[in-house]
Write a structure and sequence with these properties.
Tetracycline Repressor, domain 2, HTH-type_Tx_Regulator, elongated, single chain, mainly alpha
């Protein structure tokens, strides 16, 4: 479900995401975006009608990520705990390779705060993702693979929270091997969740 962006549109979206990741939301001005691309500000409007259109493009990129991620998860074989672990590591790889995308996904409420329609769109994607995690946890609990003495939603919170904390740690104290940290977190989490 890839959107058909031109090469320049993808560059503009990428630069905007990097600016937000590195300098915060206030840095995502058309002036700063143009400066990073070494073009004049009016040139941006050949590719996007306005700043909101750039943010819509970022939202489209997030949507692409969720659809691609979902497609990859559906191909994973194994127990529910194996599926959750594979999803954790798969997401870790994406966040390690594209930290600006990871930041955008984990901070979407903040990034899209000025655009309610985009915030709702990303919220719906995250809700669907959460529903899938809950379903997989429930399957694992019913099969006796995942602990039943823990509430399903609390397990989902543990998984999501562990992932976010590992992501933030990678950002704060830039790790030369962020994937190693994610894998270590997952191994400890797996031991905690296994029945």
């Amino acid at each position: 479900m890839k959107k058909s962006f031109s090469k320049r549109q993808r560059q503009i979206i990428e630069v905007t995401m990097n600016l937000i990741h590195e300098q915060g939301l206030v840095a995502a001005t058309t002036r700063n975006i143009a400066a990073k691309l070494q073009i004049k500000e009016p040139s941006l409007y050949r590719h996007f009608a306005n700043k909101k259109a750039i943010f819509e493009g970022m939202c489209d990129v997030v949507e692409e990520y969720y659809h691609d991620f979902s497609d990859q998860i559906e191909t994973i074989q194994g127990s529910p705990l194996d599926i959750i672990g594979s999803a954790f590591i798969l997401r870790s790889k994406v966040f390690s390779e594209y930290p600006h995308l990871g930041f955008l996904i984990t901070n979407s409420e903040l990034v899209f705060q000025a655009y309610e329609d985009l915030r709702k769109r990303v919220g719906e994607l995250r809700k669907n993702d959460y529903t899938g995690i809950i379903k997989t946890i429930e399957e694992g609990q019913s099969q006796g693979i995942i602990r039943k003495d823990l509430e399903t939603e609390n397990i989902a919170a543990m998984i999501g929270g562990s992932f976010i904390v590992a992501s933030r740690r990678n950002t704060i104290d830039y790790s030369p091997s962020p994937l190693k940290r994610y894998k270590s977190v997952w191994q400890d989490l797996r031991m905690t969740l296994a029945a």
